[in-house]
Amino acid sequence: MKKISIISMLALLVVTGSCRKDSSFLDVPPKQVITSDVAFSDPSLVLSILGDLYNRQVDFSGLDNGWASFADFSEAFPSENGSYYFVQRTGWGYGEWGLWDYNYVRDLNLFIQRATAATKLTDADKNQFIAEGRFLRANYYFELVKRMGGVPLITTPLDYDFSGNVAKLQVPRAKESEVYDFIISEAEAIKGLLPAKAEEKTRATPGAILAMEARAALYACSIAKYGVNTPQVTLPGNEVGIPASMATGYYTKALAAAQAIISGSAGNYSLYKQLPDLSDNYANLFLDKSSSESIFVEDFKANGGKTHGFTTNDQPFSISDEGLDAGRLNPSLNLVESFEKTNNTYAPMATKDGSGNPIYYANELDIFADRDARLAGTVLLPSGLFKGKRTDVFAGYQLADGSILTSGDATQLKPLPGTTTPVQVVGKDGPVNGAEFRTQTGFYIRKYLDPTVGSGRRGRGSDVNFIRYRYAEVLLNAAEASFELGQTAVAAGYMNQVRARAGLTTPLVAADITFDRIVHERRVELVFEGHTLYDMKRWRLANVVWDGNQMSVTDLVSNIGKATKRNTQPWGLWPYKYYNPGNANNGKWIFKEVLPSPVTGANRFQLGNYYSQISDDILGANPKIVRQPNQ
Amino acid sequence: MKIKFHHIILGILLAATGCKKDNYAPPGSKLTGRLTYKGEAVNVEYNQVPFNLYQPGFGKSAPIVGTFQQDGTYSALLFNGNYKFTIPPNQGPFMWKEVGPGKRDTVAVTISGNQTMDVEVTPFYMVRNAKITAAASKVTAVFDLEKVVTDAANAKGIDRVDLYINKTQFVSGGDQIASTELAGSAITSLTNISMSVNVPGISPTQNYVFARIGVKVSGVEDMIFSPLVKLTY
Question: Closest-CA residue in chain B for A622?
């Protein structure tokens, strides 16, 4: 009896337990997916989405996309056996530098749409997030237009309606000018939504927005103005190329945006002037995270999960934290000699006197004396100081009979003539042709090189940040825009600020400002910051300076400071010790221009390289997209 | 387990059945030809002047891209079928017929087996009567230039003329051991132009060089060349 009641009770429980509705049993919210209305209900959740979007921004050369992104264009030589293709190829593929990540654009559009629709965020938070999303989208379209020209402008998330008709999703390319107009109008629309805050470097600020606007407008106007030099680089629908009539309008906008930053209305930015030694000061501007000069950066954090290997890859071989991992990026003599003398004149490195005899220097660094302070701040010169030690760069002994005593490695000792004790006859840092991880041009990079203890180790890495927009560039943008508008005195004023910081204290006057000067100043100030290719493209100089012809020594040492100077092969400057006991010059240094032997190709920039190829996959999927010109 | 004979046989049988052909035959018809102007070869730079072959009707419309050799010859290994041959805009030192602004004419090619098709183009200039000689490690060239395109709308000037020499048979601005340049503005007469270049030391030594004359036409990226000459001295 008792048993029966227990069994029937149990049965009843089981039956009633299974009587729940199907829907209440099956509809369990998944725990690993956060729906968009939940995500957009809490500012810290939105921030985590935004963090991912910030991370997906694309830079031409970034510290986290490898040292090799800095190595091209004859500004540097790649000292790594697997990377000699940079200097052996005779040009670039049409697909090089291509970018077409519309997944990212969609995510940005979704973010903006959802942040706009959010109901549980405060208005201040919403404005902040929407402005940041729009900034990132505009900045990404800027990256796209620089590489591809006019691209389809998608500003709302596109969804397929499963009707079988995809024509609605096939958006044609916008005109190149329309993309620039979009960037400028977005910048104008959102710059007032955010508080001016110069201490904020990693997120969108009015300073970052205006800096982007100034640069974008400047790119647009130079394409409009200098596009006439390459009439072939256009498309009938202006998807590529901007009509010359639009140049002045863009120059005015570029100048206005740059001046808004300079006037201080977007926050208190200024040139970095903290250290008494001007070269150290210039180098430190890239290391100091609280620098008043940086406007928008990609930040890194050591022991915090976001680091990069730039210092590991590029530290001097003899001062390496990581044994053989070093010395890949070697700035070229082409770049080094383009730094002016402090009296504002251009001169090649003085290796020979008027009658062709070598010039002897008591100290290895003497040949670089009286140069623009940015030279030693950008480039680690032979016998340059890093982490308290000097690099050991010498190519061998120049003997009195004209022959050279050298070896393939610093550990292979040889006796000097007339002696029997073997001594070191080549520097620990090279240069030796083909000896990787050591300099092969005589120079190492100093910009971004992190002197923090342990920064050169693979495990720790470096957390030097990458500056995307900085105040000096804003000044140079203003200088270029005002120069093109005919206000040369204003241009000189802006340029002199940047130059004075580099120790070029004799000011340039209005008559000195020429197109060559503008091009030159941007090169020496902004080299290795991802500007080289885009600047050469927008000035339509790329097919002139990278013309595919090999460079002779005469090419190398002449026409320095000319915008059209050929720059197709990275040369080196090799120091030799003079050995001639009894001679007054014994033990002194002489220098020779050397083309490192792995350099066999010469850069050739074809007209088809101006705008990267749109792949046949994309063209096939969307027949409204027109092919790039000259490919 | 001991490996028995019939196990091996079984294994071999399995492997053999896997040998069935599972692929298409590779393309086997060769299309060859050269660039010509009135039957004469048009010489260009190696690997710089592209041509496109479209085969309509298959999937997405994408070209098969090839480039001309420096003597103007080309070749492509294709499947039999109907193709359209064209040269992309602004490529090559010659004119190509356009059927509208930016719309390039195409040549229909029907491939069935190997065949030859010469491509007739109108170069802006031709190098004529080139006499390139070598003596005492100096290469001298005497030649005429013929301006082929003379109508006002399409005629173009000369940027520069270069005499290139190289130790291999690839001779151009990118492949050379020495060159001299004559600016277009310095050319007063198109006949009897003379240029010379000193042969630098070649290591390892060889007693011959290859030479070509290249003409850079204003506003045209690719250069047009004279036929390659091997000079022994």
Answer: B60
